[in-house]
């Protein structure tokens, strides 16, 4: 297609065209994606469906609609769960279209100084001044531990102090798991020896949120890896994976974070690079897509992505786990969208859960559908997120399971809030690492 002179005058339209038009034209508008899309189901609008958003991207790339007035909101309301990709009969790369559209919209907002809302300003502060700095995140995590340890959190919750600042943050603060003591933290740069004979050396990616406020799950991850014969190295110079930046359209920042991680893990000499967060793992596995046009980095990123594994994959490969305790009760599983839809990992978590002595595993209807955590989606689109979550909890109740298992920190917080909202007092939401470690008597 030849771009008209009018369109060439608009560099944002031209950039969107270059980045998305060929991929968007792959969509045949068949509608197979509609039943897979949680926002289409909850909002009932074609503009909030994958094919609707793709059509809007095409129209914007042709200069027929305005990027900010007509495209920004539908793209922003997308969860980015990518379930549509698994349903698509012609393999439309929706994830690429979605992130490219985000990138162009964000670029225009930044350059034309349209990011004026308090929410956007807060988002940019968090993305640029918090997540890329693991020491700041650890300080925040340690402060949260002290906040909980001293009981100040209970007082704050009674007075609804956090909710007065932000209702969504107040809701999630109430269900935040207990943060483990700073003195139990693993150290970046350390190597942890295997239990028994060494089978392989792996490098561990602790992530951002996991490292800051869920470090116990990371510690248990390291110990589970040790229990199946892994020597575990934690590269010192690793950083945030960049997923949140990419999902918010800040692609240049995401690339810089990716470069730092590639360099850090390349020098580890590890056979696999292990993570325990579905969202982080999906980003790590798609680093090669970030550098398609970069000759210097593409092959390095491709090699990095090939070595990236979820914790459940390696535990199945090197298992069986050394179970020592019986699990009492029923367990169900909520897929991490990015673990299932991007990384293609769905059988391994279920295989591990079914292998736990004494546990009764029951499949939840719609377990492959998004819980509406979506990175920070549940913070910036709280009401839309809760509609999807409440429906998810109805499905969870039908299983009669006492434990809902997840494989991603955002999903874990979302499901914990879902338990709180549904009044299911005898139900708990846990990360799969917590469940497996308990059954192995690892504390």
Write a brief caption for the model.
Helices cover 56% and strands 7% of the residues. The protein is α/β, with parallel strands linked by helices and 443 residues long.
How are the SSEs ordered, and which strands pair?
Elements: H1 5-9, H2 11-24, H3 38-43, H4 50-61, H5 67-76, H6 83-87, H7 94-111, H8 118-129, H9 134-149, H10 152-159, H11 161-165, H12 167-174, E1 191-192, E2 200-204, H13 209-213, H14 215-227, E3 230-233, H15 243-247, H16 251-266, E4 272-275, H17 278-285, H18 287-290, H19 295-307, E5 308-310, H20 311-318, E6 330-333, H21 337-342, H22 347-354, E7 360-361, H23 377-380, H24 382-399, E8 403-406, H25 409-422, E9 428-431, H26 432-439
Helix pairs in contact: 2-4, 2-7, 4-5, 4-7, 5-7, 14-26, 16-19, 20-22, 24-25
Protein name: Glycolate oxidase iron-sulfur subunit
Function: Component of a complex that catalyzes the oxidation of glycolate to glyoxylate.
Catalytic activity: (R)-lactate + A = pyruvate + AH2; glycolate + A = glyoxylate + AH2
Q: How would you portray this structure in words?
A:
The chain is α/β, with parallel strands linked by helices and 443 residues long. It has four domains: 5-111, Fumarate Reductase Iron-sulfur Protein, Chain B, domain 2 (Orthogonal Bundle); 119-174, no CATH class; 182-315, Rossmann fold; 322-439, AF0625-like (Rossmann fold). Helix content is 56%, strand content 7%. The protein has 26 helices and nine strands. The chain has helices spanning 5-9, 11-24, 38-43, 50-61, 67-76, 83-87, 94-111, 118-129, 134-149, 152-159, 161-165, 167-174, 209-213, 215-227, 243-247, 251-266, 278-285, 287-290, 295-307, 311-318, 337-342, 347-354, 377-380, 382-399, 409-422, 432-439; strands spanning 191-192, 200-204, 230-233, 272-275, 308-310, 330-333, 360-361, 403-406, 428-431. The strands form two sheets. Strands 1-3-2-4-5 form a five-stranded mixed sheet. Strands 7-6-8-9 form a four-stranded parallel sheet, with helices on both faces. β8, α25 and β9 form a beta-alpha-beta unit. The radius of gyration is 22 Å and the shape is globular. Residues 1-5 have low confidence and may be disordered.
